[in-house]
Amino acid sequence: MPRLERFGLKFVGLGAIALLSCILVGSPLLTATLPGFAPTSMRVSPWTSLPSSTLEAAAAVVARKADDSTLIVAWSGDLNSMDPPDSLIEWNREVVLNVYETLVQYKFEKKADDTLVWQGLQVAPGLAERWTVSGPSVTFELRKGVKFYPSGNELTAEDVKYSLTRMTNVPGFGRFNANLAGLFDGEKQIQVVDRYTVKITFGDAKGAPMLFPSSLPSLRFPQFSVLDSAVVKSRATPDDLWATRFLKDHAVGTGPYYVADNRTPGQETTLQMVPNYWGKKPAFRRVILRVIKDSADVVALMRRGEVDVTTALGTRELTSLEQAGFKVRRAAVPNIVKLEIALDKPPLDIRNARKALAYAMPYDELAKNVYGGRAERALSYVNPDAPGFAPTFKLYNDINKAKELMQRANLQSGFQVSIFYDSGVPAFEDIALLIQDHLRKLNIVVDLKPLPTTQMGAERTARIRGQNSLQGLILSQGVIWLDDPDPNTDVWIKSDGVSNVTRYKNPVIDELHLAFRFSQDTKARVRAYEKIQGMVAEDVPMIPLLVTGRNAATHPRISGVSFTADPHNRFWTMFLAK
């Protein structure tokens, strides 16, 4: 098998075939010494001005094929439900955010390049044009004259109560997000004051009324979308009281778009502008969402003017498009790339073995060589801007310490382990290869196990449910939408967390988290989550690797791209630059 050099390192064996397929895609970054990657001096940093030759290339970018009222977006997968609380995958949520609306929305700051960037936990009016806060209660005054599509029914407080009560009673992340906001029982906690006024009294799991820092910001999320209650109730059946089957394939919202009838699952979905939409009319009357799973195909179609927007490309593809004159924008969305560890797989059940792995990770090389400077090292599993964030993993960066810990664990001869990852994420193979090479220094043999996106998701779910799946290291990434340590801990770290794939159990952490997640003693709460992060760093059930942010590549004429903590496109903010 021929040798291939990558990142300046040598790899030999079966991985060469996969590597060669990546290299032959035709990246303009190829050099004689580092196939597939450009040296640092050739890379384009997101904070560095482009050279004049690149700026001149923008003028040579092919014209858009679509007419000025149509936007074409490349998706790497497809939606499987239009039901807001059932928005478990990103494509579901992206559709929901454009066909439904919520009581409040993100507050944006407009940047010099016309991008819109969310402002932390701040909120702006949505379906509610104003609200007042009184203790644990928030009273919302709804906009009048807002109509649902296609029924034409007017939005009322009854629709709000029904929708938010429903989200706590149907499968999906709806219940989780409702609980995070302090909403557990809609019938008791939501009061219809009059036709256009609704009052929500937030509280904790025990029923004690209280308003949390996350209560109002959570209402921005797609799971809190308001549905046409009259239509949904008419579609309910004795065995489907919340009409989940109907809403899987039908949208009944107040948003600027609706899903056209010509949808072809797995291939293409079209959004059309709602006639007589109550708010500001979107610049694009039609949005075509095309499923294109191969990133090389996406790049080729963008170069031909047949795709306008994509957020599903890796660093090499983004740099290639940027050098060709396309726009690549980035915002610091807290997307955390992490290496989760199956604690029931020997010798990963040995704490010093896990610590050795953490000390040996090539953090800086991952940020530089895989993401081209479009990432930074993660120092905790908590969002960097969250109150109570503690950089407890900062100490892990010492190969000699890693070797010492391997000796303490009586593992100086090394061991063999698999690393599982989603083959649909462009950067994951490169990350896995670098980790594989670095762990050779500890005599650890790493077997790469790429899995298709659907299979990876199924295997992850199976493991969470107790099956013997993904026995080894699990490379993953995730965005927690709130800058707060609670959701990260609740989802990834808590013993029965909905995405605790490591099977980590720490009763002390569980007790602290339960005691302080809804605490209004800010200082004590911060101290509690700092302590939790310290315990996680000591036990190492996972290794936070990078915070990557979010990138969007567009045709030079597309402006108005928005960035939010929930990383999805809002097509109604986009427009054609003159």
Describe the structure.
The protein is 30% helix and 21% strand. With 578 residues, it is of the alpha+beta class. The chain has a seven-stranded mixed beta sheet, with helices on both faces. The chain has a six-stranded mixed beta sheet with strand order 16-20-15-19-17-18. Strands 6-7-9-8 form a four-stranded antiparallel beta sheet.
> How many helical stretches?
19
What is the radius of gyration computed over CA atoms, rounded to a whole number of angstroms? 24 Å
Q: Which class best fits the helix and strand makeup? A: alpha+beta
The largest sheet is:
7 strands, mixed
- Termini separation comes to 53 Å
Q: What characteristic shape results from the CA principal axes?
A: globular
Strand order in space, largest sheet: 10-11-12-3-13-21-14
Beta-strand segment tally: 24
Q: What average pLDDT do the residues reach?
A: 88
Strand portion? 15-25%
Indicate the percent of residues in helices. Answer: 25-40%
What low-confidence regions span 5 or more consecutive residues with pLDDT below 50? 1-59
